[in-house]
Write a structure and sequence with these properties.
The protein is built from 8 helices and 11 strands. The chain has helices at residues 21-33, 44-51, 70-79, 95-103, 116-129, 163-174, 182-190, 200-213; strands spanning 13-17, 37-41, 58-62, 86-90, 108-111, 137-140, 143-146, 151-154, 157-158, 221-224, 228-231. The chain is elongated, with a radius of gyration of 19 Å.
Length: 234
Amino acid sequence: MEKTEGMTDRTFRVLLVEDERKLCHSIERTLQRSGYIVDTAVDGEEGEAIATSRQFELIILDLNLPKKSGFEVLQNLRKKSYTVPVLILTARDKVEDRIAGLQAGADDYLVKPFDSGELLARIQAILRRSGHLQTSVLQAGDLVMDITKRTVSRDGEVIPLSPKEFALLEFLLRNKNQILTRNRILEQVWGYTFETGTNIVEVYISYLRDSIDKDYTKKLIKTIYGEGFLLQDE
């Protein structure tokens, strides 16, 4: 994946709740090109359900949503002491609307239409303020990944990985104990939104197994036949 302006040095998971499908897809692609893992929802009920079922570093939330408004979703989340930062997207540009959104618990407010560069800059600013751009360590059993230092070790032994192997392992670690389909891995790690006709995922899973599992009794990477792969942490 080609490095673009605003690309992060580590992977963050973002929930995008936007009912305008063309805009949703455009934002999703912008974020993916900048290194973010993106989940999407097209209405308020779905967005609120996903937000509370997975771990995110940021939520991008439209206000004018079907089934449940963005304001209602935000208020419900904050009532549950949900502390994940929220960036509101809306066509409402009145000052009172911005104030209402911030008072409801939003961390920032971006009015449509907006430039993708400004969106990325605001996301970076929110992540800095929330402390997510500080050192981060991911772990599964005795496997440890330091995102900032770009190192991986198992049982104290440093394991050298290529950049793509590192990105794939980071994605597996961030979604440990979850079955990840081949297509989802292709989309999030390689940036493909279509079937490539290649076995690139299987090839790199094999590389990772040789690096982090081959010499250890406990195997972390599992193949769920007919479904996908997971990194298991008991």
